[in-house]
Amino acid sequence: MSLRLALGAAATAALALFAAAPSTSAAADPPESVTADPKGRIATDPPESVTVDPKGRIAADGTITLTGTYRCVGGTGPVFVSSSIAQSDQSVRHGIGGSLAVCDGKKHRWENTGKPYNRVLKAGAAQVEATLMELRPQGGLPLPTFHAAQRQDVTLAKS
């Protein structure tokens, strides 16, 4: 099995587990860091987040490139930024790559590139979901643990 297929299968399984997981109480959420902007207003930055840039690229051969930022802390297993995209039918999502994340509490850029199997995507409006997911070893098996996720409407532009 190729690495891309293995990551796609892991991400799909992780998303299914994430959707079925009960929500946790606010007491279980990690603390946020508090900062002040230049005008003295207090702002909170979540210690873990993932964003999606509002513009993506589509090449003539159908290859999609998506970008954004992430921040995470304290991974004990490998952490990945995975992304998927949907266009006309929101129930059909196409996995677009995956990149290894560094969980040091700092904001980093991510970029994922992939080519959907059937080339059904085209320039225009789309919806991207990015997930910051860790494969944490538990009982000898790597199980998915989610750090952050975001859905974002994007515009695919020809590159």
Number of beta strands: 10
User: What's the quaternary structure here?
Assistant: single chain
- The poorly predicted ranges are 1-7, 11-36
Q: Report strand %.
A: over 45%
Q: Classify the helix fraction into a percent range.
A: 10-25%
Using the alpha-carbon principal axes, give the shape: globular
Radius of gyration: 17 Å
Measured between the Cα atoms of the first and last residue, the distance is 31 Å
Number of helices: 1
Along the chain, the helix and strand elements come as HEEEEEEEEEE
**Average pLDDT level:** 79
Computed structural class: mainly beta
Largest sheet: 8 strands, mixed
Account of the protein in words:
- This protein has one helix at about 5-20; strands at about 35, 40-45, 50, 55-60, 65-70, 80-85, 95-100, 110-115, 125-140, 140-159.
- It is mainly beta and about 160 residues long.
How is this structure best summarized?
The protein has 159 residues and is mainly β. 11% of the residues lie in helices and 48% in strands.
List keywords for this structure.
single chain; about 160 residues; mainly beta; 1 helix; about 10% helix; disordered N terminus
Q: Topology of this protein?
A:
Blueprint: H1 3-20, E1 33-36, E2 42-45, E3 49-50, E4 55-58, E5 64-71, E6 79-86, E7 94-100, E8 108-114, E9 124-138, E10 141-158
Parallel strand pairs: 4-10
Antiparallel strand pairs: 1-2, 3-5, 4-5, 5-8, 6-7, 6-9, 9-10
